[in-house]
Amino acid sequence: MELISHTLVMGRLNSSTAFYGSKVPQAMKVATFNANSMRVRLPIILDWIGREAPDILFLQETKVQDKDFPVNAVEEAGYHAVFRGQKSYNGVAILSKSPLDDVKTQLSVEGVDEARFVSGRIGDIHVINAYVPQGFEAGSDKFRFKLAWLEHLLGYITANYDPSSQLLVAGDFNVALTDMDLYDPDGFRGEVGFHPDEQAMIEGFFNWGLVDIFRKHIREGNQYTFWDYRIPSGFKRNMGWRIDYILGTASQAERSRSVWIDREARAMEKPSDHTFLVVEFD
Amino acid sequence: MELISHTLVMGRLNSSTAFYGSKVPQAMKVATFNANSMRVRLPIILDWIGREAPDILFLQETKVQDKDFPVNAVEEAGYHAVFRGQKSYNGVAILSKSPLDDVKTQLSVEGVDEARFVSGRIGDIHVINAYVPQGFEAGSDKFRFKLAWLEHLLGYITANYDPSSQLLVAGDFNVALTDMDLYDPDGFRGEVGFHPDEQAMIEGFFNWGLVDIFRKHIREGNQYTFWDYRIPSGFKRNMGWRIDYILGTASQAERSRSVWIDREARAMEKPSDHTFLVVEFD
DNA sequence: GTGAGCTCAG
DNA sequence: CTGAGCTCAC
Fold first, then answer.
1. Which of A7, B23, B39, B52 has the fewest Cβ atoms surrounding its Cβ within 10 A?
2. Which of A265, A267, A203, A208 is nearest to A236 (CA)?
């Protein structure tokens, strides 16, 4: 499908198109993936979008400066790309079949302007891609920055969007929410990534009106999107964390039909430590 | 073919073999290759020995410590390996169909014991593999060390071998001898790699009785074994140097039938900056 | 330009 | 364990 984009509504659409001027949403597929290097994972990403044809793919940890972002390869695959990167760390991108409007790539927190945020709009669908700071260690400065960044993001959302709007917030939140969401809850309770202060921040997103679309559909545990490279055979032993999310306002949660985690992408050459989380909408 | 090895002469050969106890040399193929990393070039090397089936392959710049040398892969390809490596730099190895006897891996010069030398014997054929220091810059300490190392190698040869013996000395000498042997002789005259002092040292090897087997067979220029990575399209433009050699005593030069440089190996994935130099013997 | 190995971060 | 980017050497 193609989303009805702003430019189309503005009049460039020819009269034979069914949904001209309509606000009726169309089926779409959305995915998020912490690539852990756009350049290293480019073959996996091109293969994946070739096979799965998502309408929108949110990418985190692209670890590539804008001048080196592989725009051509992405465009040859039939996608538009918006991105903001920096040297070595962080970096986010949104690939989409239809171009993104109203693009924003900055969310400065405490004067720190890391490449962790991209937002935009495709037709009536508003999208935010977030790469939440990892936080290093509970109680550390980096941990406090993580909480501040989450608070700032939520503040930005409440100030700029309405719970009744069509909004998706996807990305790597670096927080597991419940005992179902990581392989050793007792071992990590109170540690970074599984700390009550982080979880309370995420609850704030829910309280505002965002829904964890994966959890709406799937109630089982042991469903992870991240496996630490440092744990020997961690993927095979499924010692992972569910820390990547696709959140949606009520309207989006409502029209979400199915959700799945692509464990196959981990069988490819040079897998990332994360994998693809996918939501399909009616 | 299989060379008549020491162990065979010692009695393990069955009586149907033609050359039992004989000193008559058999046809063999010998090659030298500066791998510039044994680990990175392993696919190229395995492919090459699989296709070309050399009896002996001399390798330089293996850049791998002995504990990490890919012995298994080499043995699975049907070769014995002797090697001496160090971290990051230098490193030499000899792969051979028949095992090498009387292996020596040390040639300490001025107290510096870098991994630049392996010698051994297969039957009556004595072999030396040398990775001569690059020399940095004419007149530098490293340049003087290069000359000292060459002098020491020649002294070692004259002290331990006889010009009438069957001796091969192969490797990367990091010296071009004449204007035919590099792409810009006037540009590099007197520079490291094309300096009269280095050339005089190599002449010493010839004066003792070693023959540059390539040059015995091929009189043309523009025949190179090394192309500096840093020169844009240097290989395509054939801006190279002939600095790798297979030298032999008179008896070996005599029975050398043909010599060639394998430019095809440079078309493979991740080519080295050097390529294979090959001599076939009757 | 390329490889090794180091530091930093995850 | 993995990636980036740095230094070093060639």
1. B23
2. A267
